[in-house]
Structure formats: structure tokens, C-alpha cells
Specification:
The chain is built from five helices and no strands. By secondary structure, the chain is mainly alpha-helical. The chain has one domain: lambda repressor-like DNA-binding domains (434 Repressor (Amino-terminal Domain)), CATH 1.10.260. The longest helix has 17 residues.
């Protein structure tokens, strides 16, 4: 099995997450606390540096009170 990484998709997810977080006037630290994640993990997702799991995206969506469409448009 090989690692599949689509940087264009990760960058779009990163941009959408950052916009969703800022729209809700949350800092990265506040989002991390709400989602039970580390600040560095949120920062790496928002910069497209990591290929995060679906489970992590789910907890971020819940912490934001967002719909998946907001991150995956």
C-alpha cells in the first residue's frame, strides 16, 4: 500500500478550515481545545502540511459546529 497525497486538495481543505475557524472568531488554540487536539496539529492541517484522518476532520467539524460541505467545497 502506498501513501496517497493530493496537495491541491490538502491546500483547499487548509484554506477552508482556516476561513471557517476565523468566521467563528476562534483562535487555533481555541479550536484545538474544543476538538481535543493539539495546537500544532491544527496549525499543520491549516497549512496543508499533514494528510489528516477522516476521524480528525469529524472532530474538527463538531468543534466548529460546521457542516462537511463548508470544508470540502
Amino acid at each position: 500500500m502506498h501513501n496517497v497525497r493530493n496537495q491541491k486538495f490538502l491546500n483547499r481543505l487548509a484554506k477552508n478550515l482556516k476561513e471557517a475557524r476565523k468566521k467563528r472568531e476562534l483562535s487555533q488554540e481555541e479550536l484545538a481545545d474544543r476538538a481535543g487536539l493539539t495546537l500544532s496539529q491544527i496549525a499543520r492541517i491549516e497549512t496543508g502540511k499533514i494528510n489528516t484522518s477522516v476521524s480528525t476532520v469529524y472532530v474538527i467539524l463538531k468543534a466548529l459546529g460546521a457542516d462537511a460541505n463548508e470544508l470540502f467545497q
